[in-house]
Automatic annotation (TrEMBL):
Protein name: Outer membrane protein
Endpoints of the signal sequence: 1-23
Organism: Formosimonas limnophila
Keyword Membrane part of the UniProt annotation: no
GO biological process, alphabetically ordered: protein stabilization
Chain segments annotated as transmembrane: none
Family that this chain belongs to: Belongs to the Skp family.
Length: 165
């Protein structure tokens, strides 16, 4: 019985000590990065700039694709009347054009992805600085980017969207 009393006294002392520690508040904020990238003014401007920068190249590729389709349709139409040598020549030319087009398209897609990543990294870097500023100013101990559920009072996303206009 005496042992049980000592254990109980120890637990009570531990709880009393820890309740003082637990009384301190721990403030957590959450940022929805997908929403930030979709709704912030800077993200919208970056997407518009990116689309504008690659619009001409995309249109040129679309014209080349249409030209290749047209040449292929003409080849299929003329196929019965062509000699073997003519067929081989036209097939070779079409294959070269298709290969060149595919190479240009792959280069375009790679350039687009690289530019998009650079713009998004720049935006996320600015957002990171803004997050740190808000966290320090408002006393947040931790800011996370993913959460299953967030009370509106802890969601910092709208503040960031407003800050990145």
């Amino acid at each position: 019985m005496k042992k049980a009393s000592l254990v109980l006294a120890g637990l009570c002392a531990g709880l009393a000590f820890s309740s003082g520690v637990c009384a301190q508040t721990f403030k957590v904020g959450v940022v929805n990065v997908d929403r930030l990238l979709a709704e912030s003014g800077q993200a919208k401007a970056a997407r518009a700039k990116l689309e504008s920068a690659f619009k001409t190249r995309d249109a040129d590729l679309a014209k080349k694709a249409a030209s290749i389709r047209s040449k292929n349709e003409q080849y299929e139409k003329d196929y019965p009347t062509l000699t073997d040598a003519q067929r081989a020549t036209r097939e070779k030319v079409l294959k070269q054009e298709v290969n060149q087009f595919e190479s240009e398209r792959a280069k375009f897609e790679q350039d687009y992805a690289n530019e998009q990543n650079a713009m998004m990294q720049s935006l996320l870097s600015k957002a990171d600085g803004l997050i740190k500023g808000i966290a320090q100013k408002e006393g947040y101990d931790l800011v996370v980017t993913e959460a299953v559920f967030v009370k509106a009072e802890f969601d910092l996303t709208q503040k960031l969207i407003d800050g990145l206009k």
